[in-house]
Amino acid sequence: MKTPRTVLVALLAGLALTACAAPGDGSADPSPSPSTTGAAPVTSQPDPGTGPSRPDPSWKGGPSTPPGVGGTVITGTVQAGVEPNCLLLDGHLLVGGPRDVLKAGARVGVTGRPEPGMMTTCQQGTPFVVESARPA
């Protein structure tokens, strides 16, 4: 009689663990959901409806329209960070963008979005995901 009881306990434990799995594709997601943390999820992709519509030649691949909802334009002189390959602009850590335009000492205008929750290897500035950049 012990064997059926053990099997029943194992099945119930398996069902309980399955119920805790992430909804959707059936795989577990180790990251907390936005509803439990109270913060918006960090993504590396811009929203499809807010990206650039058509490139303008003067922007070197940037949008010809103002930034989308939540987008920001920053203009200033790029500074080198303390770690290699880290670039700062007005207290923001520049993540991505054309490195031929974004160089230490260059005066530029960048369009993008701040991502304060993003993890980086640079220990300075608030991460700012660059959508486009142009010389200023």
Structure description:
This protein has two helices and six strands, in the order ααββββββ. By secondary structure, the protein is an alpha+beta fold. The chain has a six-stranded mixed beta sheet, with no helix packed on it. A hairpin with a 6-residue loop joins strand 2 and strand 3. The protein is elongated, with a radius of gyration of 23 Å. The termini are far apart. About 26% of the residues have low confidence.
Q: Which percent bin holds the helix content?
A: 10-25%
- Estimate what percentage of residues fall within beta strands: 15-25%
Major beta sheet summary: 6 strands, mixed
Order of helices and strands: HHEEEEEE
Average pLDDT reading: 73
**Structural classification:** alpha+beta
Gross morphology: elongated
Unreliably modeled segments:
31-65
How far apart the termini lie comes to 81 Å
Q: Counting H and I runs of at least 4 residues, what is the number of helices?
A: 2
Task: Give the strand order, joined by hyphens, for the main sheet.
Answer: 1-5-6-4-3-2
Count the strands? 6
Radius of gyration: 23 Å
Keywords: Signal
